């Protein structure tokens, strides 16, 4: 899967969590723009892990602050 395909899939997965209908861009932050709380983050990460059959470690999660970083991280994990 290339980055564009990963991006498209994650955009589909984020829809139910994007309660305010924020336009998603690479710079969109989860805590600030989307106002995700810790429970929402856990549910969203679980959905991504299930969809892509990957594990996003707690350390990796702590480093991911915006949408673009998430797409890059999932793309990288897909290649491993």
Please provide a written account of the structure.
The protein is mostly helical. It has a single domain, classed as ACP-like (Non-ribosomal Peptide Synthetase Peptidyl Carrier Protein, Chain A), CATH 1.10.1200. Helices cover 57% and strands 0% of the residues. It is built from four helices and no strands. The protein is globular and about 35 Å long.
Brief digest:
This protein is an all-alpha fold and 80 residues long.
What attributes characterize this protein structure?
Non-ribosomal Peptide Synthetase Peptidyl Carrier Protein, Chain A, 80 residues, 4 helices, 57% helix, mainly alpha
Secondary-structure topology with pairs:
Elements: H1 3-14, H2 38-52, H3 58-63, H4 67-79
Q: Using the 3D structure, state the CATH architecture.
A: Orthogonal Bundle
C-alpha termini separation: 12 Å
Q: Rg from C-alpha positions?
A: 11 Å
Look at the helices and sheets and give the structural class. mainly alpha
Strand residue content? under 5%
Q: Output the helix-strand order.
A: HHHH
> How many strands appear in the DSSP assignment?
0
